[in-house]
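ok trying this again, last paste got cut off
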Amino acid sequence: MVLVTGGTGLVGSHLLVKLAQQGEKIRATYRKGSDLEHVRTIFSYYSETSSDLFDTIEWQEANLNDIPKLTVAFENISHVYHCAAYISFDPSDYKKLRNTNIKGTANIVNLCIEHKIKKLCYVSSIATLGHHSDRIDEDTFWGGNQDQSVYAISKYGAEMEVWRGIQEGVSTVIVNPGVIIGPGFWNSGSGLLFKLAYKGNPYITEGITAYVDVNDVVVAMLKLMRSSIENQRYILAGANISYEEIMTMICKALHVKAPRKVASKFLLSVGWRADWLLSKIIGRKRKLTKQLAKTLIKKSIYSSDKILSDLEGFKFTPITDSVSARCREFLEDVGS
């Protein structure tokens, strides 16, 4: 039996679709209060028998720090896909990020050791990689304090727990995806790009980063888990493109006007300071932090040569195709 943590998230829900379509016996964990019906909606994007497929999943309510419930979830499990994580760039969430991403991952690793799991796949992030190279690959390691975001720090700590598990005998593969493009999550992650474009966001930045289709992430995970490859990590970057390019693609597919105003380094520096002050005055969550502002103008190029070399026949979906498909789904979801 396969265990998927974070089954209600972007990667987890799409992974469940593929596993169910392939007839796997699946158990998936979710946090109390999560919307399971939303996962059913994700299934409907890919199958006319989506409800039947969804109903094959055995759901287990368990957060990453609830050891008794996690122990139950691990019963009769042979393979684990650890997709669950807390995502926030607000420094005020640092303790929650550490508690969920680092401590929670340590719990998953310990249970993998205890239950003698055959193989673990951990969904990490390109945020855990160093940025002191013109071309970033799997050997570009974290180079000390580079003023990373609290999210990056927590994911790096989580990845260290996974590497500890490897040292203790857990066969593992790690994937480090770029910005993941996928449908159904329009209020978080890359989904916000589509929402901002649709509403007419006027600003762009000159930063460059990696983007990848969610289904490419899932296919890579499945292929790696079913291969003899172990104790390796892989960058998943379908394309390295600028924020301007991705927004232009999205706006064209949504038939809206593309933004043209460039948010300069100075404007972003003013913006994150104003955002900090506003958060102190009215107590709302941060939307633009110093680290995020730096990321928006940073030009980072990530290499996917390793995954393309090690997984025979694996190819990335062209980002233009991925964006076009997501835009069609976005328009259907918002009723246009």
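PB: full thing came through this time. The chain is about 45% helix and 15% strand.
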